[in-house]
Amino acid sequence: MVPILGRTLILLALLIASAGALVGFVTGARPSGVGWTWTRRLAYAFAALMALANLTMEYALLTHDFSVSYVAHVGSRSVPTWVSIVSLWSSLEGSILFWGLVMGAYIAVATWQNRDKHPEYMPYAVGVWLACGAFFSFLLAGPAQPFATVLNPQADGPGPNALLQNHYLMVIHPPFLYSGYVGMTIPFGLACAALLVGRLGHDFIRPLRDMLLLPWIFLTVAIVLGGWWAYEVLGWGGYWAWDPVENASFLPWLTATAALHSALLVERKAVLKGWTVTLVIATYLLTILGTFMTRSGVFNSVHSFTQSAIGPTILVFLAAALLFTVVLLTLRVDTLAAEGRLETGPSRDVMFLVQNLLFVLFTFTVLLGTVFPLVVEAVRGVQMSVGRPYFDKMALPIGVALLFVMGVGPALPWGRATKEQLRGALLPPLIGAAVLAAAGLALGVRSPWTLVALFFGGFTAQVTLSEILLPVRQRMRSHGEGVLDAFLEAQRRGRRRLGAYIVHAGAMIVIVAIGVSSTMGTSKEIQLREGETTTVGAYTLTFVKAEAISEPHRQSARAQMDISRNGRSLGTLYPSMNQYESQREPIGTPAVRTSLTEDLYLSIHNIDTDTGSVGLLVLVNPMVSWIWIATAVMALGGLVALVPAWRREPAAVQARAPAASTPPEGAPG
Amino acid sequence: MTAASTPGATPAQAARINTRVLVMGLVIVVPLIAILVLNLGRDPHTVRSPLVGRPAPAFSLVPIGGGDPVSLESLRGRPVVINFWATWCVPCFQEHAALAAAARGLRDVRFLGVVYEDEEVRTQAFLQQRESAYPSLMDPEGKTAIAYGVFGVPETFFIDRAGRIVEKYVGPLERSTISELVARARSGGP
After folding, report:
1. Facing B44 at nearest CB: one of A299, A382, A606
2. Where does residue A76 fall: left (phi above 0), alpha (psi -120 to 50 degrees), or beta otherwise?
3. Which end of chain A is more exposed for a tag (fewer CB within 10 A), N or C?
């Protein structure tokens, strides 16, 4: 029963999405009220069907209905209920189904928000979204079918991937990643609509930017959650390894970040329209490339997700989408002509361009390193891998350059600047730069690149802070308000600007923290017997005992480690090794003692509970927690910038009017 | 891409086909698709080494931190395990303890590390923190790695007494796998 219900819902979704795409395109070409009404109805229907299909699967998972192929694949009676629920995204077919749910939700919300706006663009946009929706429905109807009928169902199943059960971060990472990935469909549809209409007006850049910002926030969080998960679970003490799957999530983030900035120039100066549209389209195509990379089994990755049959299907879609967009750009990009012009010379305008070029350079660098092994394999028949040194070497100067631009850009005025203005803008932040670099030197930083990062970081920090406070100071002076009133009023009038600078503050901290943590850590690998003690840096570790713990769904062996620092006890850590029923290899779970200054990281290589011995990797990683904190700051900044867009217009209208006294709304460089 | 924002594009130009975008787009898109298509159906974990069953390429390399060069020739008569590794490689990290334990346990076998695309200072620090049970050699221009067809670390070669490669293993080794493969190298073949 349930398999048939599921398959029916999927087939209906495929039908509805295809019909909706068709109606949308026809209505776009020949506008009509009826056409638009039906386009919307079909969009809502697609979302509803996807939601129902997901509910059906959840029902099957919770009732352990092993006649559903996906449940037979990942379900188990012995796992806790929460594991059954999240099993939805633990394996290929379910995750594509979940993908459909997220997509339906995005499409429904975006359609509803714009139901009575932008009439010439919206039918095209919804048409593009539903065309993408039709493709994923097709995947679910055929190549990645979750609702196939199992003829002789077993009484129990193997349970989901052990990694999913091992850590809560793996439970929340995929939903964030999908919300980021899938959400890029929305700005992609809007960008295609702008090209099809042949216009990108001032009124339409706002929704484009906001609909890009929302998935950008999710993607930012998802990338860092992935790194955090690797750090907490994989046990090698790092958070980023330039693995193809990591790169797959990073690539669209780079182009989306570039697009968020160039969209600002479109909004302010009506330039770079075609360029911005291209970046938005590239972002979506990179999410599809990323999907292919993680799902096809072609790339050699430590994640080694799946070796699946959907690779060819996704590749056909990717190729079709690539050719469609290239042709669309070729035919229509010249219709999005610039109305204004950019200043040359040292100005914020130019720094925006530099920023964009750096991000695109970064994208190509990472893409090249990721794809290069495939090129070599195809051309010479030799297997090879591009090691981390390539990526690290390339990312280091680009990252530092971005930090530089992030400091200098917002410091410079828009348009042409006199020499005095330049001096006034660029000299004071050197104090912040010198302070942070000196602090680093005093604390023992010797790596030249880290010192440079600290220097630019300090510069950026001071610029960012003074930009956040500038409107407050102006209000205090001109309106005679108190600090708090002035701040509240200023932030109400310039939410997007404030949000953007909060993101900058977070990004600056992330870059500095990466620099410090990757150059200032210490590590030690050691074999201990029960009762033995070792010291690492200021820490003293005592291996008290090894113990075995039995839980319904896993067996664990853990080491009890008493920790003290400079003679003061800090408590006990339990790094462990978990053996799941469904998995041959055990999975280690490191124990991390996190503090604001540094992490103490214990990871087990081998443990023997009989003889009482343990092989430990001990790392002291400075500043790592700041990466997580600063990412939360970036997400918060994104939300601050997004919120007024979803309240009805007055805030936005007001903010644009008094351009003379407050700095222009919008963001930095 | 580039022509998109050319200032002053007039409506007359607007209707035209932008060939620059077409060419740039195709230059990026077509090779990308071609490469992905060519690689479909390939399992990245399979390894084809034409070297298995053949004499191991000779080398003479200086150990980390200096000293007399070690040559393969001088080890003839004993099974040899050669492990290509680097400090930036996560799996190398994981297998190090197993290799060191095996080297201590299997006294009749000679274990060698060969550093792959890494700096001497880093590798030295890496080994000082861990107990290294066997010498690691610097391979300055990667000539030995090339001779052995190394495409990504870790890769480990098992060589018999006669200097013939018996087995090539890609990925992190476990203690049990090492014993098994060493046994094959001892008996001189699979």
Report:
1. A299
2. beta
3. N
Which A-chain residues 334-373 have CB contacts (< 8 A) with chain B?
334-338, 340-342, 371
Choosing among B16, B26, B36, B155, which should be mutated to test the A contact, i.e. which has the most A CBs within 10 A?
Answer: B36
pLDDT digits (tens, 9 = 90+) for B89-117: 767 877 888 898 888 888 889 999 999 88
Best of B1, B2, B5, B150 to disrupt the A interface (most A CBs within 10 Å) is B5
- Cα separation, A411 vs A392, in Å, equals 29
Overall size of chain B counted in residues: 190
ipTM of the complex: 0.74
The distance of A654 to chain B (nearest Cα, Å) reads 29
> Is residue A8 located within the same domain as residue A118?
yes
Domain of A191?
176-237+272-336
Average pLDDT of chain A is 86
Question: A53 with A88: CB under 8 angstroms?
Answer: no
- Domain contains A191: yes
Interface of B with A in 65-84 (CB under 8 A): none
Check whether the bond before B154 is cis (ω within 30° of 0): yes
Q: Is residue A364 part of a domain?
A: no
Q: Do residue B91 and residue A302 have CB atoms under 8 angstroms apart?
A: yes
Is the domain of A140 the same as that of A229? no
Cα–Cα distances (Å) from A284 to A280, A616, B168, in that order, read 7, 43, 41
Q: Note the pLDDT tens digit of each residue in A259-314.
A: 999 999 998 888 889 999 999 999 999 999 998 888 765 665 544 444 456 788 88
- List A residues 586-645 in contact with B (Cβ-Cβ < 8 A): 605-606, 615
pLDDT in tens, A600-657: 999 887 788 888 888 888 999 999 999 999 999 999 999 999 886 555 444 444 443 3
| Partners of A588 in the β-ladder | A577
pLDDT of residue A644: 66
Q: Name the residue with higher pLDDT: B139 or A258.
A: A258
Q: Any chain B CB within 8 A of the CB of A374?
A: yes
pLDDT band, very low/low/confident/very high, at B3 (cuts 50, 70, 90)? very low
* Burial class, A543, CB count within 10 angstroms (exposed 0-12 / middle 13-18 / buried 19+): buried
Q: Do residues A643 and A549 both lie within one domain?
A: no
Owner of token pair 């055990």: A586
A218 occurs within a structural domain = yes
CB pairs under 8 A between A and B: 155
Q: Verify that A152 and A56 share a domain, yes or no.
A: yes
Does A271 contact chain B (CB < 8 Å)? yes
Question: pLDDT, tens digit, for every residue of A400-427?
Answer: 999 999 999 998 888 888 888 888 888 9
Q: B13 vs A337: CB contact, 8 Å cut-off?
A: yes
From chain B, the residues in CB contact with A298 under 8 A are: 36, 39-40, 42, 44
Mean pLDDT computed over A336-365: 88
Residues 6+ apart with CB under 8 A from A462: A428, A429, A431, A432, A433
What mean pLDDT value characterizes chain B? 80
Domains along chain B with CATH numbers: 3-39 (no CATH), 60-187 (3.40.30.10)
pLDDT, one tens digit per residue, over B146-160 is: 888 887 778 899 999
CA distance A18 to A20: 5
